[in-house]
Specification:
The chain is globular, with a radius of gyration of 19 Å. Helix content is 38%, strand content 14%. The protein has one domain (39-184, 198-345): TIM Barrel. With 358 residues, it is of the alpha/beta class. α4 packs parallel to α5 and α11 (290-298) crosses α12. α5 links the parallel β5 and β6. The protein has helices at 13-23, 26-33, 40-50, 96-106, 120-126, 142-154, 173-178, 215-221, 234-242, 264-275, 290-298, 308-340, and strands spanning 52-54, 69-71, 74-76, 80-82, 109-112, 131-136, 160-163, 185-186, 198-199, 226-231, 247-250, 280-284, 304-306, 353-355.
Amino acid sequence: MLESGPEMSLVCLTDFQAHAREHLSKSTRDFIEGGADDSVTRDDNIAAFQRIRLRPRYLRDVSEVDTRTTIQGEEISAPICIAPTGFHCLVWPDGEMSTARAAQAAGICYITSTFASCSLEDIVIAAPEGLRWFQLYVHPDLQLNKQLIQRVESLGFKALVITLDAPVCGNRRHDIRNQLRRNLTLTDLQSPKKGNSIPYFQMTPISTSLCWNDLSWFQSITRLPIILKGILTKEDAELAVKHNVQGIIVSNHGGRQLDEVLASIDALTEVVAAVKGKIEVYLDGGVRTGNDVLKALALGARCIFLGRPILWGLAYKGEHGVKEVLNILTNEFHTSMALTGCRSVAEINRNLIQFSRL
């Protein structure tokens, strides 16, 4: 959590990663960077973007390039938003409050995690005008889910993001070695009648019995649009449409759940094809450059969500570090649009890319 001196000049997202590696404790660093098992998918998330090549078009007037778009009808300044990650206080004292402030300042969406280390109320107070979605790990106690959903709805969150790919926790070897769970506490998975934080390891139960037919119960208790996070196949994408949800986040949990699944960007094409434009599709996993954002949109993503890079920015300079990460990536995306001949997000299409044989 050390601030770098004035001599530091971080100009790309991997610079923030290097800084975080140098300044965070080993257990925190391992928690952020770690993948499941051999981390094949974690690494392939990044490598897969590099297997896609761009096909720029020139002699187009790009004197004005507009990065704005909408998600679930709400305008965002760029298709670059913040994915749900837990325990931001591990890397910065104000944790998720700083993250929320940065998102509000940038004019983009922040998905707050069930495993936030700040209370939802404090996050909302920190950034009252921000666009917020809430990510839910479904607890076996339905009443606890209901209380939490009603709470986030009353606090002005605009969508409910249900994570599907964690009925059990992936085999994260670094965290097991570091016994990290013993040192973490939660503030939001508690009874509203109790004021104390509770240890993470006591609240890890996530429903192992959640099924497609259970989605109707969630739809019956909230008016929020429901987004399903963790879909990687056309079969599940078709079921999502059938069950009348409002969006899908193509995600493999940053390679932290089931190892050796498809990289997110490789799974995106079949999911987009399966939904046939009926619901919005988003992506997280492996985005590190403006070109990556462009490639995801060219393959049909409405926007991308950033996970680890947000934590790197937070570790660098809190709210200001997150702002820098978002600013750098947005500027890179703006440049990528201009250099491929796209004046608006609507002009980004499949013809801009091809898959490399390398």
